[in-house]
Specification:
CATH architecture of the largest domain: Orthogonal Bundle
CATH topology of the largest domain: MetI-like fold
Structural class: mainly alpha
Number of domains: 2
Strand content: under 5%
Low-confidence stretches: 1-12
Number of helices: 13
CATH superfamily of the largest domain: MetI-like
Largest sheet: none
Helix content: over 70%
Radius of gyration: 29 Å
CATH class of the largest domain: Mainly Alpha
Number of strands: 0
């Protein structure tokens, strides 16, 4: 009896054409490698092996400098010059005049006493928005992360649902909610269907600010929930098992164990949400346009309108306001680094 064996697909020989194509591709790659290796090897002999990482970083540093440091320098030049001219060479030097104009106030508590009252209304609106938005964001993100860390049914589905708004463009988010909240929108349709009168959600100052905060929290909460959820999952389960064996109350476990171990993540969440809230623009601008009046006017919107939207464009004043905002954001970043280093030490 003669046995015939079949060659399995895994061990079957490749066609001759396949070998030829592979050899040709390998030869091409080796040629490209030799072309790149020739100048790099000579450069390494010239400057030394330890300096080679800077060569690889140089293109990124050039682009970073071109699109970050150069605009900052140009912005500073605009902030110390005046006039309506666009080119810096045509703008007269005014020194700190733009900053003096911004901070000239009878009372900083009352924006109406300031010479540039729109700037200070934007400052106070931004402070109000930042305080309540960050507090709500951090609280809801922490609560949501704790719930999603539990063994609940459909946990993967709910994690995706909470993160989905983060994937949307802020402009798209604002347009969706504007369609819901406008005078003849979906929410008012439901209210009138129940027999009540329409509510002008975006035309009354109190309601407009409330919904600006709500929409911002709704849009970004998933990102911060993910950070806190990662921190919760990094906490060893042995700690909770030991606390359960000691019959420790849940509130005490949270206060004494979970919160201290989650503190580095909380610091990151607070600082990142602060930075985002201080420079908020697109969502609020599309949703309310800064109105009604100036009730939801933010600092970034003031900068944009002063430089580009107003009938008389004041590039110097907008540049000065943007540098003030940049200093605030830089201070928040330094605070994050200081808190993180202090906690890790």
């Amino acid at each position: 009896m003669t046995l015939t064996s079949k060659t399995s697909p895994a061990t079957s020989p490749e066609p001759a054409g396949g070998h030829a194509a592979s050899r040709k591709t390998g030869a091409s790659l080796r040629s490209v490698t030799r072309i790149v290796d020739w100048p790099m090897s000579r450069l390494q002999r010239l400057i030394g092996e330890r300096r080679m990482p800077y060569i690889f970083l140089l293109p990124n540093l050039l682009f970073f400098g071109l699109f970050v440091f150069v605009p900052i320098a140009i912005n500073f030049v605009y902030s110390i010059t005046g006039g309506p001219a666009l080119f810096p060479s045509d703008r007269p030097y005014v020194g700190a005049g733009q900053y003096t104009y911004l901070f000239e106030c009878g009372s900083y508590v009352d924006p109406s006493t300031c010479r540039e009252d729109h700037f200070w209304r934007g400052v106070y609106n931004t402070l109000f928005f930042t305080f309540f938005q960050v507090a709500t964001m951090v609280g809801l993100s922490l609560l949501t992360a704790i719930v999603l860390n539990m063994k609940i049914r459909g946990r993967g589905f709910f994690r995706a649902v909470y993160f989905f708004p983060v994937l949307l463009s802020p402009v798209v988010v604002a347009l969706i909610w504007k369609w819901i909240l406008q005078r003849d929108g979906l929410l008012n349709a439901a209210i009138t269907g129940l027999g009540s009168d329409r509510i002008l959600f975006l035309a009354e100052p109190g309601w407009a600010m409330f919904w600006a905060i709500f929409v911002s929290v709704w849009a970004h909460m998933g990102f911060y929930t993910l950070i806190l959820l990662a921190g919760l999952q990094a906490i060893p389960s042995d700690i909770y098992e030991a606390a359960e064996m000691d019959a420790t109350p849940r509130w005490r476990v949270f206060w004494r164990l979970t919160l201290p171990l989650l503190w580095p993540n909380l610091i990151v969440v607070v600082v990142l949400s602060l930075i985002r809230a201080v420079q908020t623009f697109d969502e609020v601008f599309v949703l309310t346009g800064g109105g009604p009046g100036t009730s939801t006017l933010m600092v970034v919107q003031y900068i944009y309108e002063t430089a580009f939207s107003n009938q008389v464009q004041n590039f110097g004043l907008a540049a000065a306001a943007s540098l003030v905002l940049g200093i605030v954001l830089f201070a928040l970043t330094l605070a994050q680094l200081a808190f993180t280093q202090r906690k890790s030490s």
